Amino acid sequence: MIAVFNALIPVIAIIVLGMLLRRTTLFSDESWLGFENLCYFVLFPSLLIKTLATAKIASTELLLFSAMVLFAIFGMSLLLLIFQPMMKRWLHINGPAFTSLFQGATRWHGFIALSIVGLLYGDEGVAYMAIIMAVIIPPLNVINVAVLARFTDGDSSLNDVLHKLLRNPFIIACVMGATLNLTGIGLPSQLYSLLDILGGGALGLGLLSVGAGLRFSLVLDHRVLVSFGAAIRLLGMPLLMFAGAWLFGIEGMPRTVAVIAAAVPTAATSYILARQMGGDAPLMANLITVQVIASAITLPVMIWVAGF
């Protein structure tokens, strides 16, 4: 347990550094937006292409690993939809608030997950995380937009979402890397070096951007709903991933990587989607901030348990 927490200290320290830097005059809001875009469109895709193009994962293991991840994602989505009437009655939430809880439970922060796995397991761990991204990003986006369309008055533009998925840099990078791997083309040494240099900057800058995006002034709002949403995401989703790992026989490092993906906070872009489609954006902002803070405690525990 202590060893796991020690391994995560650099991650937490970089997030805190990003938070502190945001409160100085060194960088403007536009600069932080530029850093985030650089990570999203260039640095992380470079890391994903490099690791997937050179990964060595057996096809049978890949199939079972993907099934485990989808089991957890669809399982959580189904449970939330089944219990939505009860949550509406017991927690006194409306449709938009439910969509924020749904996003908070099912979506995940790729920057944090990739950074932690990269620091703990190197390229082999990143390869498994890239597989998770390729498998769950498309269905997760479609499911969340469908839920927002159903429970709010927002525009149900599923066609637009499908187009955005096709232009998603993470999806494009995963497809490119997997194609280079499966076709046997691989990466020329010069291109590998280029992607290695670019990808090397992804982890640190990504975590700094996470810290810069924290908003502590919102934490005290919606305390009951935020606590409930944090518990679903940080405890419930990892438990479902453990169940999937047991069901499909996934053990060792691949299981731990999947648990990390399940135990990281929800995606920062959830706030944007909530605002665009009529969800409860203030509640979503609260969920993001509290989950990032609470995950500093829950993540080491989940990683430690996954190691058994």
From TrEMBL:
It comes from the Bacteria. Belongs to the auxin efflux carrier (TC 2.A.69) family. The chain crosses the membrane at residues 6-26, 38-57, 63-83, 127-149, 170-191, 197-218, 230-250, 256-274, 286-306. PANTHER family: AUXIN EFFLUX CARRIER FAMILY PROTEIN. It is a multi-pass membrane protein. It comes from Sedimenticola selenatireducens. It is found in: Cell membrane. The keyword Transport applies. This is AEC family transporter. InterPro entries: Mem_transp_PIN-like, Na+/solute_symporter_sf. Its main location: membrane. The keyword Transmembrane helix applies. The lineage of its organism: Bacteria, Pseudomonadati, Pseudomonadota, Gammaproteobacteria, Chromatiales. GO terms for cellular component: plasma membrane. One of its GO terms (biological process) is transmembrane transport. Pfam families: Mem_trans.
